[in-house]
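Please fill in the sequence for the structure shown.

STRUCTURE ENCODING:
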């Protein structure tokens, strides 16, 4: 289940390239909790596959080049 969520998040971010995707968008499109989306994105970021930036209180995720 955990690996499936990560794969879905990564696929969503890849498909939206070059436009960044917010944590809220990820949680809504994949029908998962915001906190779940945020934690998985942070773990994927630690793996070096994606990166992020903050706009106000929102975090936007994008594919790392």
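FILLED IN BY: designer on duty
SEQUENCE:
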């Amino acid at each position: 289940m955990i690996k499936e969520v990560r794969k879905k998040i990564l696929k969503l971010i890849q498909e939206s390239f070059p436009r960044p995707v917010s944590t809220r968008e990820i949680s809504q499109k994949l029908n998962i909790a915001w906190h779940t989306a945020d934690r998985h994105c942070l773990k994927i970021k630690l793996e070096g596959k994606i990166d992020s930036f903050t706009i106000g209180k929102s975090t936007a995720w994008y594919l790392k080049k």
